[in-house]
């Protein structure tokens, strides 16, 4: 055997032994956490990411979706910690639910920071988005792509809300960060923090009067059937979604498979943003029509009326800007003003 064929044979041998050894490091299943299930654009994004990963890795990476944040017993504010600890391998998480652990993510919950969809994009697709991803990387997760839950609108079972005075005494279910408690308190309402799993029975029993969630969630969760008859379009905050992988899981994959998972996340993220805005954004108001057809009274605010809510929540904005980081908030405000 010539030296050359010997080398080629040795190389072939190495390849043969290396390939199965690498595959052995791969688990048969990776757990993907989301809050909402496949009736919602958010859960559909999880399903799509899994499908694209399977396709792009020729089945080497097999992802199973765990909606309802079931890997942390539905307690969505513990999701980020569970990813770091390896209880969850991958997640598509809302900036709201991870903000108790990552104070910078409260940025998107600053009341009335983002006036429109272009403003959301100016943040997630620009320097601010990059900086937030760098922050996440320092916290043991690999961020890959942005998605969207949406602009959060306010609903309740008691009366139309046109001004902060109309909110006085109403009990609202709010999510995650203490920032939400402070915002609703500043508006004169009575907020209670609870998980999404607890929110639905609380709305149905009348333990709380109202909630705030994107219109896509309002419709798919059938909130009009639990008495949510009054809806105010105030676009006060929006929560983007972030696609991440646990750092050790990421490191266990080959470079080619990592790239496949990233490309799959980017594609699923783009499709998710499109879906989350369908029937809601721009001139397409099909979702709003559907809500009105369900007998819901929809209140759109005039700029003056909206201004009252902005004014009442300004002290919360200023206080939380310091927690988030004055530089980051400034960067966000500049990006939005230049959009
Ligand atoms: O709990 C909510 O309101 C939800 C589903 O929108 C989030 O996870 C932020």
Short key terms for the protein model shown above:
two-stranded parallel ribbon, 9 strands, 15 helices, 339 residues, binds (2S)-2-hydroxy-2-methyl-3-oxobutanoic acid, D-Maltodextrin-Binding Protein, domain 2, alpha/beta, seven-stranded mixed sheet
What ligands does this structure carry? (2S)-2-hydroxy-2-methyl-3-oxobutanoic acid
Helical proportion?
40-55%
CATH architecture: 3-Layer(aba) Sandwich
The major β-sheet equals: 7 strands, mixed
Average pLDDT, rounded to a whole number, is 94
Number of domains: 1
Residue share in β-strands: 15-25%
| C-alpha-based Rg, rounded | 22 Å
How far apart are the termini?
Answer: 68 Å
State the name of the first-level CATH class.
Answer: Alpha Beta
Shape: globular
Detail the poorly predicted runs: none
Number of E-type strands: 9
| Succession of helices and strands | HEHEHEHHHEHEHEHEHEHHHEHH
Derived structural class: alpha/beta
- Quote the CATH topology: D-Maltodextrin-Binding Protein, domain 2
CATH-defined superfamily: Bacterial extracellular solute-binding protein, family 7
Number of helices: 15
Question: Can you walk me through this structure?
Answer:
- Strands 1, 2, 3, 4, 7, 8 and 9 form a 7-stranded mixed sheet that branches.
- The chain has helices at residues 3-25, 41-56, 79-85, 95-98, 117-124, 127-137, 164-167, 178-186, 196-205, 215-220, 247-251, 255-277, 286-293, 303-324, 326-337, and strands spanning 30-33, 63-66, 90-94, 141-156, 171-174, 190-193, 210-214, 230-246, 297-300.
- The protein is built from 15 helices and 9 strands.
- α5 (117-124) packs across α15 (326-337) and α8 (178-186) packs antiparallel against α14 (303-324).
- β5, α8 (178-186) and β6 (190-193) form a beta-alpha-beta unit.
- The model has no long low-confidence stretch (mean pLDDT 94).
- It has 339 residues and is an alpha/beta fold.
- The chain starts with a helix and ends with a helix.
- It has a single domain (26-337), classed as Bacterial extracellular solute-binding protein, family 7 (D-Maltodextrin-Binding Protein, domain 2).
- The site of (2S)-2-hydroxy-2-methyl-3-oxobutanoic acid (X2X) has 12 residues, from α4.
């Amino acid at each position: 055997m010539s030296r050359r064929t010997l080398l080629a044979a040795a190389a072939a041998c190495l390849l043969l032994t290396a390939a199965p050894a690498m595959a052995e490091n791969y688990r048969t299943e990776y757990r993907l956490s989301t809050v909402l299930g496949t009736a919602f654009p958010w859960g559909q994004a999880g399903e799509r990411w899994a499908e694209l990963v399977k396709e792009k890795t020729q089945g080497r990476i097999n992802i199973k979706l765990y909606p309802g944040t079931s890997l942390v017993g539905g307690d969505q504010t513990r999701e980020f910690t569970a990813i770091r600890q390896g209880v969850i391998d991958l997640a598509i998480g809302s900036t709201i639910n991870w903000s108790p652990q990552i104070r910078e993510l409260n940025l998107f919950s600053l009341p009335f920071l983002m006036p429109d969809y272009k403003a959301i994009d100016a943040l997630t697709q620009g320097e601010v988005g990059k900086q937030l991803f760098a922050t996440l990387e320092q916290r043991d997760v690999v961020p890959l792509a942005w998605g969207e839950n949406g602009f959060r609108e306010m609903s309740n079972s008691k009366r139309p809300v046109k001004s902060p005075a109309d909110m006085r005494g109403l009990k609202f279910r709010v999510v995650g960060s203490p920032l939400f408690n402070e915002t609703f308190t500043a508006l004169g309402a009575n907020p209670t923090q609870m998980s999404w799993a607890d929110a639905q029975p609380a709305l149905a029993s009348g333990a709380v009067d109202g909630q705030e969630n994107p219109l896509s969630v309002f419709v798919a969760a059938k909130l009009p059937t639990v008495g949510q008859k009054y809806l105010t379009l105030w676009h006060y905050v929006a929560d983007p979604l972030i696609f991440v992988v646990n750092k050790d899981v990421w490191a266990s994959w080959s470079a080619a498979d990592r790239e496949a998972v990233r490309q799959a996340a980017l594609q699923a993220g783009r499709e998710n943003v499109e879906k989350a805005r369908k029937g809601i954004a721009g001139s397409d108001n099909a979702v709003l029509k559907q809500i009105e057809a369900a007998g819901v009274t929809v209140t759109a605010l005039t700029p003056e009326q909206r201004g009252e809510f902005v004014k009442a929540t300004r002290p919360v904005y200023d206080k939380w800007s310091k927690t988030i980081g004055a530089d980051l908030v400034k960067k966000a405000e500049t990006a939005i003003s230049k959009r």
